[in-house]
Design goal:
Helices cover 44% and strands 16% of the residues. By secondary structure, the protein is α/β, with parallel strands linked by helices. The strands form two sheets. Strands 1, 2, 3, 6, 7 and 8 form a six-stranded parallel sheet that branches. A two-stranded antiparallel ribbon has the order 4-5. Helix 2 packs across helix 4 and helix 4 packs parallel to helix 5. It starts with a helix and ends in a 5-residue tail after the last strand.
Length: 189
Amino acid sequence: MFDGPATLTMMAADTRRIRVGTLVTSLYFRQPVTFAKAAVTVDHLSGGRVELALGVGDPSAGAKASGAAWPAGERVARFGEFVELVGLLLRQEVTTYHGQFYRCEEAETVPLPVQQPRPPVTIAAHGPRMLRIAAKHGDGWSSWGGYDVATGEAFYAVTADRSHRFDDLCVAAGRIPPPSGIRLSDFRR
């Protein structure tokens, strides 16, 4: 696969109206500060048409390729910090952050993105902790049945259950659940 931000730059240069983005940018291959810089750059080059999508990434591919062998709980905790820090970097000109996994001192985001308060962020989430992150920070939520789903019927059952849990988490986070609030890129029956 080609590099996401470089590909989006070409897409932005060759189009005028469509929104551009990837699904999803993996935690395994990006750091929050450099990802935010790339996102702001593409947002400006596209005239405010970039869409961001964040996910942990596929551990079977990302961990081996990047040399990051994080246990499942750590991956989710890292992802929560990643999403939080990217949100801060895209909203403020100077950011200092001291998390367990990510840190930055006076990281500048100048200029800020064209889209305010920041470009929309879709979060890929399936499990309970990831769904909480999406409900708290996402403008959109992406989901699919999962690795262990063998039939169409099971796919819809798993997705319906996950969708109901996500709606409840949105309400608990003080957010409006889909379809009026957070956007979806899942398959609801």
